[in-house]
Description:
This protein is an alpha/beta fold. The protein has one domain (11-226): Rossmann fold. It is built from seven helices and nine strands; from the N terminus they run αββααβαβαββαββαβ. Residues 1-9 have low confidence and may be disordered. The structure holds S-adenosylmethionine. Residues 61, 64-65, 68-69, 71-72, 94-98, 100-101, 116-119, 122, 143, 145, 158-159, 166 line the site of S-adenosylmethionine.
Amino acid sequence: MLRGMPSELPTLQAGADLAFIRRETELKPVPFVPEIRLHMAEDAIALWETTERERGGAGLPPPFWAFAWAGGVAVARYVLDHPELVDGRAVLDIAAGSGLVGVAAALRGAKDVRAAEIDAFAVSAIGLNAEVNGVRVDGALVDLVDGDGAPAEVVLAGDVFYERAMAARFLPFLERAAARGATVIVGDPGRAYLPRDRFTAVAAYQVPVVADLEDTSVKTTTVWRLG
Ligand SMILES: C[S@@+](CC[C@H](N)C(=O)[O-])C[C@H]1O[C@@H](n2cnc3c(N)ncnc32)[C@H](O)[C@@H]1O
């Protein structure tokens, strides 16, 4: 009995996460990327409070995984409209949140899609969201940002430049990935810490966003290629 417990606990926890995500979200098409459906919430603060109350106590991260962020929406749109970017290639969706970007890559023929997250709820959401869209995305609870993203040939990042400390880690990570030959694509709706001079714009979209999260209903969002 005791010997079996350690290996059973993560499975039980993941199962509880899946039930929680299904209960607290609605499965619906992503505005601007209607080809993809995600388990999404309406009210971030209410969901965050419920998550802390029921699932972990104070100190859990905000439920980024329950929303399609403008940067991710733009990258997903770009990938769906430019399948040659990912077709037959190994893709890493870094800081994947819901897994939206990884799902888009998988739908357009990526060979392997890994979606890396540091939030266990996000990893559960990625699995659910991949399944409902009929694709395989390998969600991983791992921080890869000190590496170079190998072996991915394409590194996709939606909305990762919204905090100074995070940006200070993500820019060198993305630069290391580009230096070893990976194609690096970032989606960003004008966040404060994106160093624009290091990137080349490849597309710009008017992305509908959740007004409660962004204080507006549409954000001009740019898809950038590093280098
Ligand atoms: C604003 S959300 C963007 C999610 C998704 N890419 C999108 O655009 O919808 C940022 C995400 O980055 C994740 N994150 C932050 N630091 C990370 C790290 N070092 N490795 C992986 N994920 C990270 C957070 O957990 C959060 O889900």
